[in-house]
Amino acid sequence: MAQKSISSKDLDNALTSDDILGKEIIDSGGGFIGVAEKVFIDPKDFDFIGVGIDKGFLKKGLAIGRNYIDKITEYAVFLNIIVSLEIRGMRVFDSDGKDLGVVSDVELTGNTNKINALGVKQGLFGKKIIIPYNYVEKVGDGVILNVAKKDVLGLKNG
Amino acid sequence: MGELDIMQKSDVSINKTVNFRKLLGSRVISTDGLVVGRVKEIRVDPKSMDLRGIVVSRGFFKPPIYIGRSYFEKVSDDAAILGIDPFVLLIGKRVITLDGRNVGKIKQIMRSDDSNDIESIVVGKLFKKFNIPADNIKLAGKSIILKLSYDGTKKYIQQRS
């Protein structure tokens, strides 16, 4: 559709808010995070600074800054990170494969995606263990630590 | 419990071995930290008595799988840890194209012989089924991302398997 425009820039190739809103957000591991529901624009220079994500009914939304966005395609928005907050609820194993519990809290450094520490809870009434992120070997569909369970428990007391 | 009498030549110390009885029924964990199933049987070479592989039970509806020893990274008293992600974990995952369009879910995986090397994946959407060769897979994580855009996958979608 031909549309008249008053602009110094070529608006034909620009993305519109319609292109972003309602699209699926997919992280770098291929995980589905949610659906874009907001576009954030800087109030001063009107630049695009991020998207707001609707994660579904009863779940808190999430806002993601523009530098974490990899590309916006016809069908989805790809991120260049794995969102650290998605670790919550994953099972944690020590280096021997012993079950330590489930991630209940994720402590981030500032407002970035870097993890500082994980809070792990064992059972419904179990005590919470704080595990610094340098003990984490791998995060995938679960969390694998590089230390044995008894070392982690000793760490909390010390 | 009384002290354990030990009779051995200069073999590996008993402290460095794994108790098979405890290992039976313990978890089998993929490299990504997902529980594949539980140890059902432990297969041992009759001559050298080395461990040859583990039969993993995966719940009531899924058939058990036998995983050879070369795919295991280590075993302990509490778990057997794999060095790979077994192909069975891919079944049921979403397949999306490079531009983010959903093409379906993995129904079946074609492997070369009995190994874990994937040759192609069978993707199903509604009543259609189609084959996508494994070299078109860009990334296999929470879902499978293909190297192709949606137009590129059309030729696979049209030739049904």
Fold topology:
The complex is a heterodimer of chains A (158) and B (161).
Chain A: H1 17-20, E1 24-26, E2 32-41, E3 48-54, E4 62-65, E5 69-72, E6 76-79, E7 91-93, E8 99-108, E9 115-121, E10 128-132, E11 136-139, E12 143-145, H2 149-157
Chain B: H1 20-23, E1 27-29, E2 35-44, E3 51-57, E4 65-68, E5 72-75, E6 79-82, E7 94-96, E8 102-111, E9 118-125, E10 128-133, E11 137-140, E12 144-146, H2 150-158
Parallel strand pairs in B: 1-6, 7-12
Antiparallel strand pairs in B: 1-2, 2-3, 3-4, 5-6, 7-8, 8-9, 9-10, 11-12
What would you note in describing this structure?
- By secondary structure, chain A is mainly beta.
- Chain A has two helices and twelve strands, in the order αββββββββββββα.
- In chain A, a hairpin with a 6-residue loop joins β2 (32-41) and β3.
- Chain A is elongated and about 70 Å long.
- By secondary structure, chain B is mainly beta.
- Chain B contains two helices and twelve strands; from the N terminus they run αββββββββββββα.
- Chain B is elongated, with a radius of gyration of 20 Å.
- At the A-B interface, β6 of A face β6 of B.
